[in-house]
Amino acid sequence: AQSVTQLGSHVSVSEGALVLLRCNYSSSVPPYLFWYVQYPNQGLQLLLKYTSAATLVKGINGFEAEFKKSETSFHLTKPSAHMSDAAEYFCAVSLTTDSWGKLQFGAGTQVVVTP
Amino acid sequence: NAGVTQTPKFRVLKTGQSMTLLCAQDMNHEYMYWYRQDPGMGLRLIHYSVGEGTTAKGEVPDGYNVSRLKKQNFLLGLESAAPSQTSVYFCASSYLGQRNNEQFFGPGTRLTVL
């Protein structure tokens, strides 16, 4: 079975500081992994995805994530936080038991950016 | 293009009432999904559809029914609402159900059941 664990339900960062959001996955086959962002009162939008082409994945708004098979991790980073990065972030893994594109989401991490 | 739209945005129901949530997409996507979002639990899949006229159960299907009569629309029904169904509901669609395909999400419907 596939699952995703996000460490830390809330993260507070200062503007200009590093943003690091942790995601660990469990999968019996090579996983496809996603990071989505949800701004207040909006739906989710894709930040980036890992589909085995490259272990370091660059996404929108300056975010990137590194796939580490040995650590079963897919942590999301941004070198310098901006006030507009305040949102909830979800890590997700594509289920492998069928080809219907179903995703298993983590519980989410709420990011607060302080001036 | 409007992308994925959901109707209504907000709704308050009394226990036992019924309602239908409408999801529409204008991207000609084959696959559509209904999720519910609850604090601390991320998004959980309720039902999904792999094409017009076909639906399947997801992780938490009890108490919900769905229909996909037209390719662009995916309806989620609550026949007899319960307080446990208080949640934010999201619809999503994707071009195909391949593992690396992005899902596009609607803005959500906030439902409160009293």
Q: Strand fraction band of chain B?
A: over 45%
Oligomer: heterodimer
**Which secondary-structure class do the elements of chain B indicate?**
mainly beta
User: What structural category do the secondary elements of chain A indicate?
Assistant: mainly beta
Helical content of chain A stands at under 10%
Greatest chain-chain contact = A-B, 24 and 28 residues
Number of strands of chain A: 11
Q: How many helices of chain A?
A: 0
Poorly predicted regions of chain A: none
What's the average pLDDT of chain A? 91
Secondary-structure element order of chain B, N to C:
EEEEEEEEEEE
Mean pLDDT of chain B: 93
Span of the ends, CA to CA of chain A: 41 Å
Provide the descriptors you would attach to this structure in a database record.
heterodimer, A: 115 residues, mainly beta, five-stranded antiparallel sheet, 11 strands, 0% helix, 54% strand, globular, B: 114 residues, seven-stranded mixed sheet, four-stranded antiparallel sheet
